[in-house]
Amino acid sequence: MTRAVPPPIPAAFYARRADLVAPDLLGRIVRRGGVALRITEVEAYRQNDSACHAFRGPTPRNAPLWGPPGRAYVYLCYGLHHMLNFVCEPEGAAAAVLVRGGEVVEGAGIVRRRRGGRLDCDGPGKVAQALGLDRSFSGARLDGELRVTEGEPVATWSSTPRIGIDYASLEDRSRPWRFVAPRSGFLVGSP
DNA sequence: ACAAGGATCCTCT
DNA sequence: GAGGATCCTTGTT
């Protein structure tokens, strides 16, 4: 049986400060090819932010960050993990939101196959692996095969400093730009 | 052409 | 809690 794919959130949603878009993404659904994840953890990265890949100027890898909002920026980390970002802010302003965690709400069988039997997606590498993403999706629109759709709004969230950015300035390391939603407890296929 | 290091994950102790 | 995996991207020679 086939089911209609929900409509994507319009690109204008992303054309705001990344640290405002980020918490607004909690509870929304990122989907690709039969797998849907409820977003539970994100981080914002902004222009002139020493933690952001855009900080040292454009390169072939990070070029999508300066592009139009509502597209993906995907890169390879530690040689083996893909990281999924949503490009934010108006074109020309380099900023993005990193998707660090989600809960599988559709496509558990596919996720288990990709994740070695696991369903947990608490970590950016796990998120991209569950969705089957790689660098070929960098620059892709978020209203196509890869898309973000509405979900249950999140009433509350917590914020903390971002993870794994020891290379950034003290000021940027201390920004509370990691946003975490309360766990829903719901997981497809959980016992 | 080369070396360094990374917005991490998993396994093992 | 520590360490290895694993290879691309970047800046430098």
Task: Name the descriptors.
single chain, 191 residues, alpha+beta, nine-stranded antiparallel beta sheet, 4 helices, 14% helix, disordered C terminus, DNA-binding
Protein topology:
Blueprint: H1 18-25, E1 29-32, E2 35-45, E3 72-77, E4 81-87, E5 96-106, H2 108-114, E6 121-122, H3 124-131, E7 146-149, E8 158-160, H4 170-173, E9 178-180
Antiparallel strand pairs: 1-2, 1-7, 2-5, 2-9, 3-4, 4-5, 5-6, 8-9
This protein binds a DNA duplex (13 and 13 nucleotides) through strand 3, strand 4 and helix 3.
Explain how this protein is built.
The chain has 191 residues and is of the alpha+beta class. Helix content is 14%, strand content 27%. The chain has four helices and nine strands. Strands 1, 2, 3, 4, 5, 6, 7, 8 and 9 form a nine-stranded antiparallel β-sheet that branches. The two termini are 25 Å apart. Residues 186-191 have low confidence and may be disordered. It binds a DNA duplex (13 and 13 nucleotides) through residues 43, 45, 51-53, 56, 59-62, 75-81, 83, 85, 98, 100, 123-126, 129, 135, 162-165, 167-168.
In percent, how much strand structure appears in the residues?
A: 25-35%
Write the H/E string, N to C: HEEEEEHEHEEHE
Strand count, sense and barrel status of the largest sheet are: 9 strands, antiparallel
Number of strands: 9
Q: Measure the end-to-end span.
A: 25 Å
Question: What is the arithmetic mean of pLDDT?
Answer: 94
Q: Flag low-confidence runs.
A: 186-191
Instruction: Give the structural class.
Output: alpha+beta
Morphology call: globular
Please compute the radius of gyration using only Cα atoms. Answer: 16 Å
Q: Helix fraction?
A: 10-25%
* Helical stretch tally: 4
